[in-house]
Amino acid sequence: MDTITIKDIARALNLSTSTVSRALRDSYEINPETKRLVTEYAERFNYRPNSIALSLKENRSRVIGVIVPQIANNYFSQAINGIEAIAYSRGYYVIIFQSHESYEREIATVQQAVARKVDGLLISLSSSTSDVTHLRELQDRKLPIVLFDRVSKDLDTTFVTADNFGGAFAATEHLIQTGRRRIAHLTIPPYISITQERLAGYRAALEKYGIPYDEKLIQYTEFGQNDVEPFVDALLDQSPDAFFTASDRLAIGCLAALKKRAISIPETVSLIGFTNTPVADLLAPPMSTVEQPALEIGQMAAEQLINQIEGKQTGTQPGRITIPTRMIVRASSERTPAPHPLREQSSL
Prior knowledge:
Residues 4-58 form the HTH lacI-type domain. The structure is a single chain. The protein has 348 residues and is α/β, with parallel strands linked by helices. The chain folds into three domains: 6-48, lambda repressor-like DNA-binding domains (434 Repressor (Amino-terminal Domain)); 60-161 and 293-323, 3-Layer(aba) Sandwich (Rossmann fold), CATH 3.40.50.2300; 164-292 and 328-346, 3-Layer(aba) Sandwich (Rossmann fold), CATH 3.40.50.2300. It has 13 helices and twelve strands. Helix 5 packs across helix 12. It is elongated. Residues 343-348 have low confidence and may be disordered.
């Protein structure tokens, strides 16, 4: 089937081309019934905007840049799927860059995106980014920017994140309600926004149940650290009865380390991760985790950015949009009748 145009839609519905064009752009000048007729007809016949014609007419590239720490991370690949779905539906294309957790690489990719004349940027900050001057300078030049997942309060723009505080609170509360009191927390560098929010949720749950916060039960690893055994050993010295980790990657490393030391899960130590990796339910035992709505975060971030680009928001309308998380309980954190003391189990 040949691609239909705005003129084809206008002829079929007995409307002017300008009316159809404004209806497709969701203009307030067009009444809802006309918008409905136009959008339904466009969807029925698979109408797609001519991106080249639009970019020439509007002096826009119809392209948005997306910068993530690592595409291979399942969370970011899901978020990108959400971003691309929204972008495509609104006539935009996406260029994806990776910072590889490097501040210098992030600056270079931002410069590359700007050189390609993107209409706006979606960014999840690298683990080594603490200074956002490079992004603030772009804002001063009126380039729309939306941060998602890892954000910075030093940038006056829209943030889209998971409810990291609520997810961590729910995970810690679940462990407490199953009888755990010495809950170790293995996490990523302390200056990253998601680290701070998840630690705050962990602490709030302890406080709710009158359990003292113990800094010796907290260990920070570098992001991308593959060998977590030294950190697990340091925590085991504190006789924990549960591990709550800030990511499923850390949780899987923790699971391997505990099994290597013949520490049974969940009889001796419970384990909960954060993300809901696709293999979580295939592990032995299946791993409890906090599910982050990566797809929805990507979709919302793209909507916010495109709305800024198209002037559907006044200014940048800075603010935070928080998407709820979901606690998924599996065998790794089930209540056990009588947990064995850790030191006795370790000595077997």
